Amino acid sequence: GISKNGQTREHALLAFTLGVKQLIVGVNKMDSTEPPYSESRFEEIKKEVSSYIKKIGYNPAAVAFVPISGWHGDNMLEPSS
Length: 81
What we know:
2 helices; two-stranded parallel ribbon; alpha+beta; globular; 10% strand; TRAFAC_GTPase_members
């Protein structure tokens, strides 16, 4: 999830304040979920982040959420299988 004073919240608020109209949210460390690449964990994070970004002015339905793994590079440069 996202912590109350964490970077996710700070960066989303900064982006909105600076006039960024569209977001893409990379949900990182999906290789570390149990089980790895857990769809339920991805959806849980998506729901939590959507709730927050809606409060600051974004439309969550227009935001792309992408499961990624920075460690393995999954979904970072090209779609993973």
